[in-house]
Write a structure and sequence with these properties.
Elements: H1 2-33, H2 37-47, H3 54-66, H4 70-75, H5 83-97, H6 102-106, E1 108-111, E2 114-117, H7 129-142, E3 150-154, H8 160-168, E4 173-178, H9 181-193, E5 199-202, E6 213-218, H10 233-236, H11 251-259, E7 264-273, H12 279-287, E8 291-298, E9 304-311
Helix pairs in contact: 2-3, 3-5, 7-8
């Protein structure tokens, strides 16, 4: 009897021990299932370590999935995300890792005080282009005594330059053109979303443009054709028409310089964004086409980025 009681007790002890031994595994399994906002950001940063801004990209994509701001993401990092949200986020991280930029994945891009819709029909607005906007704003401020300032943005893409100028200098009459119908569709949508009045024109440089302007600006395609293949995978996913500047990168810039004197009022200014290494050649082209008062603006990284000049 005693022997049987001992055997039963030992069996019971084994059962208890096995049950206790399984608890850590169960807890570990439970922890593995937990995916907080903070853990998701860390996961994204690790997956995107080869990208230029892994932390920012991870936060932007998670904020987009959760439909919250990045500040809310940090304020409540301990909150778990659902399986559905996790799956969507991981799918976006994979696409970003494969070279699709965050702006195309979320469909939006902030530019100055605007939030713009973007897709693969338009170039994603860059911080460097804010230098071009600021140069145009300076020109408008200097011409404030004129009853009307007419501004034209050529190769407008998403409309970033034209819309920023209209938002910050609402009295200006703003026009924007692009050869791409798909790009103009995006630009018009951005004008509606930001409640800004801009006149959009489909035109190959000046072919469809009538009238004259006090100021013309352009961020045209200026990547030399031979360098396209050396661009990052991310940039190569952007529209070729917005990147390819021909053999020397100056194909459209040369056309703008040659034809803009007919489209500028006397004393009007032409503003061009280009690569820093192209600025000296553009300066010579301007001087050879009756432009004067040439000024060069540096971007946030102190590189020559924008060149402007007047026609008399």
């Amino acid at each position: 009897m005693e022997r049987r009681r001992f055997v039963l007790t030992a069996a019971q002890n084994n059962l208890v021990m096995n049950r206790d031994a399984s608890k850590p595994d169960a807890r570990k399994k439970q922890r593995a299932k937990t995916f907080t906002r903070l853990a998701a950001v860390q996961y994204g940063k690790k997956q995107l370590s080869a990208c230029e801004t892994p932390g920012l990209d991870a936060e932007l994509l998670l904020s987009f999935v959760l439909r919250i701001s990045r500040s809310a993401l940090h304020a409540h990092g301990e909150i778990e995300i659902s399986k559905k949200e996790r799956a969507k986020y991981q799918a976006l991280i994979k696409k970003r890792k494969n070279g699709v930029c965050s702006a195309y994945l979320t469909g939006t891009k902030d530019f100055r005080f605007l939030t713009l819709k973007v897709n693969n029909s338009v170039l994603v607005p860059r911080p460097e282009t804010e230098t071009l906007v600021e140069a145009v704003l300076d020109f408008i401020d200097q011409e404030e005594n004129k009853p009307e300032i007419r501004f034209l943005d050529v190769c407008c893409g998403s409309g970033a330059i034209a819309l920023a100028v209209k938002q910050e200098r609402p009295k200006a009459s703003v026009f924007a053109s692009d050869v791409s119908r798909a790009a103009l569709k995006v630009a018009k949508k951005n004008a509606r979303l930001n409640n800004l009045k801009v006149s959009f024109i489909q035109s190959d440089v000046f072919s469809g443009i009538s009238g004259t302007f006090d100021c013309i600006a352009s961020n045209p395609p200026y990547v030399p054709h031979g360098m396209l293949q050396s661009l990052s995978k991310e940039v190569q996913n952007e529209p070729l028409i917005a990147l390819d500047g021909g053999e020397d990168g100056l194909k459209i810039i040369k056309t703008l310089i040659k034809e803009s004197p007919k489209k500028l009022k006397k004393g009007g200014s032409l503003f061009l964004e280009a690569g820093p290494e192209q600025i000296p050649q553009i300066k010579t082209l301007l001087e050879n086409n009756r432009f004067s008062n040439i000024k060069i603006y540096k971007d946030l990284s102190s590189a020559d980025r924008v060149i402007c000049s007047k026609i008399y």
